[in-house]
Structure formats: C-alpha cells, structure tokens
Amino acid sequence: MPEYDDDLRLAHVLADAADAATTARFRALDLKVETKPDMTPVSEADRAAEELIRGQLQRARPRDAILGEEYGVQGTGPRRWVIDPIDGTKNYVRGVPVWATLISLTVQDDEGVYQPVVGVVSAPALGRRWWAAQGSGAYTGRSLTSATPLRVSRVSRLEDASFGYSSLTGWEERGRLDAFLQLSRDCWRTRAYGDFWPYMMVAEGSVDICAEPELSLWDMAALVVVLQEAGGVFTGLDGQPGPHSGNGVASNGLLHEELLARLGDA
C-alpha cells in the first residue's frame, strides 16, 4: 500500500465533516462575518470548519502538527496538516458557489522544509472534489469509490492555451500588469475563475496555465499535490517548486518556462 493512503482516507473524512458544516451555513441570512486585521473577511463557518477539522485531527493524529488559516500553528514535528477551511470566503459570504475546503498533509524533507504529500480540495456547492497522495495519482469524483483519474492537457503553444487567474489588482501592485495583459492577449482564452478552481482545472486538463501574484501556504499546499500527481508543474514566480514562494504558477508543464518568462521574477 502506498505510504500516504491512510492519511488520504482521513483527509476525505475531514472534508466530509467540513462540507456538512459549511454547506449548512451557506447562504444563511444570519451568517456572521467579521473583518480580520489583514482586511479580509472571515465567517463563523470558516472558524467552525477549522475547529471541526482540528478536533478530528487531534483524535486521529495526535502527534501531528496543524497549521490553519484561522488559528495558526499547533504542535511541532515532522508531519504537519495544513488547512484552509474555506478558500474563497468572499464568494462564500456573497452566495457564490465557488469555494472549497483545502486539506493537506505536509512532511519535512531533508532540509526541514514541509512539503505537501496529500491534498484534498472539496467544493460541495459545485458538487466537486479533487484529491491526490504522493505516488498514488490524482483523482476527481464524489468519493474514493467513484474516482476518475486526472491528467493535465498536452497543449504546447501559448496561442492555443486557456489561462485562468483571479484578479488584476495583485499584478498591478507587483508592477506586472502590462506583462499580464500581454499574456492574456496572446492566449487563446482567459477566464477569471478565481481561488482554487483554475488550478484544479489545470489538473484535469480543461485549463492549461494559471498564476496568482499573492498566496498563502494554506491556499496552495493541497493544490500542489493534486497538480503534480496529475502531471502538472507548480512553482512560485521565482521558479522554485512547491508552495513556499508566496505566489503560485501552475501549468501542464509544457508551457511552464514560457509562463515564468512572461510573469516570473527572473
């Protein structure tokens, strides 16, 4: 049995519990929403889902550390779960169904850096879930028993590529808006799907490239595993593999060097 299959099964159980909690409060008229110090919104559903996941992890994996968007780091050790209880909170609080719970297990490498090895992305309002474990492939479906393998596209020319992104403001703040706009003109198609969704579409081959100029670890960790196991590439704008650069660039691999040349920090 591959090394992380038990952890992947647990991640599905955690996602099931979070889905039930977040779906129950989606579009609730009395949903409580606050503004965090970084001026981003947080709802009672974000906090409840993270508390629920943390509680189950403490019972099932008491030796593992946890990092969550709402409650920070808990514990130490070579294994750490990374949680974004609702990726796409702004969508969630406005009743837009594009939001997901992101759950990842990360394990320290030889240099002590936590690298993602399990990822589950669950979007109950879309009726979709994507998942992967290192060495076991990437899949989509409603459950482990109804899984379809994921594979990135074979599009190799930018003029044939579909480009997914979130917004323009971050690129403007980074001084890359002109480069971003030129890239969008040169691609076959562009759509601002936002948040986790374009990365999962790259994994399933319906989008070819996507990039965001500002992301947190919990935004990326689960996505990285799914993309890599589907045959794709995920780096930062600096070209470094994985979710540690504070931003994300994802592709089917064939277009990655050109994407970095257009938007990256080289």
**Which stretches of 5+ consecutive residues score pLDDT under 50?**
none
The share of residues in extended strands comes to 25-35%
Secondary-structure element string: HEEHEEEHEEEEEEHHEHEHEEH
Question: What's the domain count?
Answer: 2
Mean pLDDT: 94
Outline the biggest β-sheet: 8 strands, mixed
- The CATH topology of the largest domain is Fructose-1,6-Bisphosphatase, Chain A, domain 1
* Structural class computed from helices and strand pairing: alpha+beta
> CATH superfamily of the largest domain, please?
Fructose-1,6-Bisphosphatase, subunit A, domain 1
Radius of gyration, in Å, reads 18 Å
Shape: globular
Strand order of the main beta sheet, please?
Answer: 4-3-5-6-7-8-9-10
State the name of the first-level CATH class of the largest domain.
Alpha Beta
Number of helices: 8
CATH architectural arrangement of the largest domain:
2-Layer Sandwich
Defining key terms:
single chain; 266 residues; alpha+beta; Fructose-1,6-Bisphosphatase, Chain A, domain 1; D-Maltodextrin-Binding Protein, domain 2; 2 domains; 8-stranded mixed sheet; 5-stranded mixed sheet; 8 helices; 33% helix; globular
